[in-house]
Amino acid sequence: MSHSRAPLLASALFCLFALLATLLPSLGRAQTAAHVVISEVMYDPVCSTTETDCEWIEIFNPTTAAINLAGWKVKDNFSQDTLPAFSLEPEAYLVIAAKAASFAEAYPGFGGSLIGLNGPVGNGLANSGDQIFLLDSGDLQVDTVSYGSNTTAFNPACPTVPEGQSLARAPSDRDTDTRDDWFPQASPNPGAAGIAAPSPISRIASPPCALSR
After folding, report:
1. Which of 39, 171, 47, 154 minimizes the C-alpha distance to 96?
2. Are 167 and 182 in contact (CB under 8 A)?
3. For residue 186, what are the contacts with CB-CB under 8 A and spacing of at least 6?
4. Does 176 score more than 50 pLDDT?
5. Running DSSP on this structure, what letter comes out for residue 29?
6. Contacts for 3 with CB less than 8 Å, ≥ 6 apart
7. CB atoms within 10 A of CB 2
8. How many whole angstroms separate alpha carbon 15 and alpha carbon 100?
9. How do beta strands 93-97 and 114-116 pair?
10. Is 23 helix (H, G, I), strand (E, B) or coil?
């Protein structure tokens, strides 16, 4: 082998190993959810009344069957709320809001499915960090997400977002059980799919490999 080609080969091998190191950890993880998921969270809303009145979460059914949500629960670190009977159709979204009236005021054009809790989501979602659980009627955990200082679901957790922004799973059916599924939404989009940023919120962009000659 020519000595002039050795640096080129070494650089190519380095890039290959770097790519494999990035891809291999995710090979064993499910990419598409086979269960109802939490798909968007608004924990720090701009609100004309008490902030907790305007908090909401969104769930999504990526399966091919309708799911009866009677007796399902939404829970944070300290408290939980039981959902009424509701059939969540395949590929459908449901917004669970603290106060239906406050949600309608914030999103007057919303035409999707909505359940109002008439009280805070859980104990009220903490802006600095919290965890949200979705439990079925048998109290089995269906999905969870944590953000900020709370690393119970994900470690590292989803970073906090500025006031008025939400966190959304994008695509809505993606489920790797990491914060890489979640993206900040400058314009929250309840009842519809979230928008993915150019790269996951947990990823730090690195310059592409360049082959030297």
Report:
1. 39
2. yes
3. 165
4. yes
5. S
6. none
7. 6
8. 52
9. parallel
10. helix
Tally the residues of the chain: 213
Domain spans of the chain?
37-185
Is-contact 132 75, C-beta < 8 A? Answer: yes
pTM of the model: 0.79
Tokens of 117: 């809790």
Cα(98)–Cα(114) distance, integer angstroms: 10
Place of tokens 């050795």: 6
Any idea what DSSP says for residue 201? T
**Backbone φ and ψ of 185, nearest 5°:** -115, 105
- Least Cα distance to 167 among 77, 46, 35, 39 occurs for 39
Tens digits of residue pLDDT in 17-47:
554 444 444 443 458 889 999 999 999 999 9
Q: Which residue from 193, 189, 154 is spatially nearest to 172, judged by alpha carbons?
A: 193
CATH of 37-185, picked from 3.40.50.2300, 1.20.1050.10, 1.10.1040.10, 2.60.40.1260, is 2.60.40.1260
Q: Which residue has the tokens 């979230």?
A: 194
